[in-house]
Amino acid sequence: MSLWKISLAFLFVFFSCGKPPVQPLDHCQKINGMPGPEDFDYDRAGNRLLVSSQERRKQNGGYPEGAIFAVDLSGKEAVGTARALPITGRDSSPFHPHGISLFAGKSETLLYVVAHPDEEHNAIEVFRVLPDSLAFKERLTSEVLVHPNDVASLANGELYVTNDHGWTGGLAVLEDLFALPRSTVAHYREGKWSFVADGFRVANGIAVNRALDRLYVGATRDRGIHVYVRNPADGSIGKELDFIDMGSGTDNVMWESDEILDVAGHYSMIRFIRTVKDPTALSPNDITRVNVTSGKKEMIFATDGSEISGASTGLVLKGKLYISQVFEPFILSCDMK
C-alpha cells in the first residue's frame, strides 16, 4: 500500500464522523462562474467581494491560471454576476492565488494574495485595487513561506501568514499521517520575515483584532482557533491565551464585526479529502459565529454537502451569508433568518 493510501486510511480511522448537522438557510442562490473560489474579502469602497479563484483539481497534470474576481453587491450589476479583474504591471509568472487579505488605507486599497507560482515556490503578491482592475505592486518572497495558506494584513504593511505544513513533498505526507504539529505562522514587517508561532496541525485562517493586541489562528486538524497575545509596538506574538474549540476542521476566519468572527469548518476531514479526487463526493461543512469577547458560539449554517461542499469561507454582510468553497465554481448567497 502506498504512503498516500496509508495516510488516507489513518485519517479515515481518526477523522470519520457520524451524521453531520444540517441547518439550512432560506433563499440561497448560487453566484456562478468562479472556479475554486477558496477565499474572499469585502471591498467596502466598491461594495463588492473580491474572490480568489483557482481550479484546484489538476487538469492534464497541471493547473490552469487563476484569477481575482469581483462580485458586485450594490445592485449595479445583475445578481450572480462575477467578473475577472484584469491585472496590469505583472510579469508572466503563473498566477495561482490562495488566501487573500484586503486593506483599505487613506490613499489606496491593497490586496495581499498568497500565490503558488509552482509546487516549489511561494510568495505574497501585492496589488493596488482599482475600480475595474488590479495593478501589481510587488512580490514578497522568503524561505519562511514554506507552504502558505492565508494572510492577514495591517495598516503599516505588516503581515501574518499561516503555513499549513512545516514540510513539503513526501515529508508533508508523513506530517499528515502522524498529525505532526509542524505548521507555523510567519510574520513580515519592514522587509524582514520571521516565524512567530508554531506547533499547529494545519494552520489555516488567520486574523488580527481591531485593537491589534490579539492574533487568531484557525488550525484545521486542531479543530479550533488558537488565540495569542500580540504586541502592537513590534508585532511580536506572546503566549497562547486561549483555544476556542470549534468541533470542526477550522478553515478561514472572517471579521463580521469587531467582536464576531465568522468561521468556516469542515465536519469530516476524510470526506473533505475524498472531494479532492472525486467531485461527486460531498463534504459536510458549517459556518459558526464566534464572539471573541464572551466566547459564545452560534452555528448559523450547516449542510451535509448537498447545498455547498467543502466550504472554506463564510461572512455575514447586510443580512446575507456568503459562503465560498475549495473546488466547485460558485459562491452561495443566503438570506439570514
Explained architecture:
Helices cover 9% and strands 50% of the residues. With 337 residues, the chain is mainly beta. The chain has a single domain, classed as TolB, C-terminal domain (Neuraminidase), CATH 2.120.10. The strands form 6 sheets. The chain has a 5-stranded mixed β-sheet with strand order 6-10-9-8-7, with no helix packed on it. Strand 13 and strand 14 (192-200) form a beta hairpin. The longest helix is centred in the N-terminal third of the chain and has 13 residues, at 3-15. The N and C termini lie far apart (49 Å).
**The CATH homology group name:** TolB, C-terminal domain
CATH second-level architecture: 6 Propeller
Query: Mind describing the biggest β-sheet?
Result: 5 strands, mixed
* Strand neighbour order, sheet with most strands: 6-10-9-8-7
Summarize the model shown.
The chain has 337 residues and is mainly β. It has a single domain (26-335), classed as Neuraminidase. It contains three helices and 25 strands.
Features:
337 residues, mainly beta, Neuraminidase, five-stranded mixed beta sheet, four-stranded antiparallel beta sheet, 3 helices, disordered N terminus
Which secondary structure elements does this structure contain, and how are they paired or packed?
Blueprint: H1 3-15, E1 26-32, E2 37-43, E3 48-53, E4 67-72, E5 82-84, E6 87-88, E7 97-104, E8 109-118, E9 121-129, E10 134-140, E11 148-153, E12 159-163, H2 170-177, E13 183-189, E14 192-200, E15 203-208, E16 214-219, E17 224-230, E18 237-245, E19 249-255, E20 260-266, H3 269-277, E21 285-291, E22 297-303, E23 311-317, E24 320-325, E25 330-335
Parallel strand pairs: 6-10
Antiparallel strand pairs: 1-25, 2-3, 3-4, 4-5, 7-8, 8-9, 9-10, 11-12, 12-13, 13-14, 15-16, 16-17, 17-18, 19-20, 20-21, 21-22, 23-24, 24-25
